Amino acid sequence: MDEEYDAIVLGTGLKECILSGLLSVSGKKVLHMDRNKYYGGESASITPLEDLFAKFNMPVEGLNLEEYGRSRDWNVDLIPKFLMANGQLVKLLIHTGVTRYLEFKSCEGSYVYKAGKIHKVPADEKEALASGLMGMFEKRRFRNFLVYIQEFNFDEEKTWKDVNPNITTSLQLYEKFGLDKDTHDFTGHALALFRDDLYLAQPCGELIRRVKLYSDSLARFGKSPYLYPLYGLGELPQGFARLSAIYGGTYMLEKPIDEIVLENGKVVGVKSGGETAKCKQVFCDPTYVPDRVEKTGQVIRCICLMNHPIPNTRDSLSCQIIIPQKQVGRKSDIYVSMVSYTHQVASKNWFVAMVSTTVETANPEAEIKPGLDLLGPIKQKFVHISDVYKPKDLGEESQIFVSQSYDATSHFETTCADVVDTFRRATGEDFDFSKVQHDNCEVLE
């Protein structure tokens, strides 16, 4: 460990593994260490099933584990999220060739909760006209809105039609099409995936981009805009770790981190087990530098094992349901995601659902009740409340770049934004995809 590295990455969560892959591809000499003996950190997939019970300190004595099928067939994500088919993470996977290590299935349905019922999210004109979310006249107005967004081109002002994406607010855009508040609700939260309603007062350019992303993602694979990797999300960090290794990155698991060594306030190395590896930069998750992060809140997640699909989702073998904040009198949305044995994450005829949200009260479990109530009978549940951290500074002075904790969302868009932003801060430039050796791999078989 007496070599000098351009960058040392601590922790093998997905964000850190993507960063080590991107840094290695950019020609940096990277050492990647983790105190754990497995990949994934907080974002790992747990197998076999007994390890999931152990992770949550739940005794298996007295449980009939045989009814859950083969224990090794379970790969349960601690922080499950779907990939937007045309989103940043899929672009990173394709451009870096990591797709060669992974297989994906498209998610079967995207739903939104309104007035106690769940409805399929309409994503094109035909679905809009058939949707139970809106009355007949509202359907036509919403259809016109979707057509407008499809035809909108940021580079051609004639397509803007009296809307300035940098000035006109999202609320004004909705009002231009005469859309009612319930339509604002599912468009903003289930299509554009905003986490609160602050966007309504902001310029509508971002709303237009996000609805376009949803529609473009849906157009790629049809049933929904979301993808999910076979064998669970734990495959993703390992894929990027392999990418880093191909470009010369070095990996060490089960390495306790004793100290990040600083000189004059700037990082010069990392000490582990009496040895020090020298480096110019350190990248890590918040758990490695508790003094450099501040707590911004908490997320509650509840993993549910079930032997049936979620009711009222047309027996979907995978789906996402978003419960917009206003529908249940909250400040933040509740997310429900479900995958199943068809994704090689559970044994035959079993399903794994997750309900998550940002904690707002002193009774977090009551906050996820609207999501749990949609699931039907639950065989086993595992509740986890985790603190959310963000770095106190941008890392430019110390050259220690800390990622943010994973949020409650059930998709990867915010995760990728954090990675891309960290890479830009550390290198002073956007990642250059032309540096990657292409092999024209596709995402879905």
TrEMBL record:
Keywords for the protein's UniProt record, in alphabetical order: Cytoplasm, GTPase activation
Localisation: Cytoplasm
Highest taxon, organism lineage: Eukaryota
Cellular component annotations (GO), alphabetically ordered: cytoplasm
GO molecular function terms noted in the UniProt entry: GTPase activator activity; Rab GDP-dissociation inhibitor activity
Pfam families tied to this protein: GDI
Primary residence: cytoplasm
Gene3D superfamilies for the chain: FAD/NAD(P)-binding domain (3.50.50.60), Guanine Nucleotide Dissociation Inhibitor, domain 1 (1.10.405.10), Guanine Nucleotide Dissociation Inhibitor, domain 2 (3.30.519.10)
InterPro entries to which the protein is assigned, alphabetical: FAD/NAD-bd_sf, GDP_dissociation_inhibitor, RabGDI
GO biological process: protein transport; small GTPase-mediated signal transduction; vesicle-mediated transport
Purpose: Regulates the GDP/GTP exchange reaction of most RAB proteins by inhibiting the dissociation of GDP from them, and the subsequent binding of GTP.
Recorded family membership: Belongs to the Rab GDI family.
Protein's UniProt name: Rab GDP dissociation inhibitor
Classification lineage: Eukaryota, Metazoa, Ecdysozoa, Arthropoda, Chelicerata
Encoding gene per record: LOC100905517
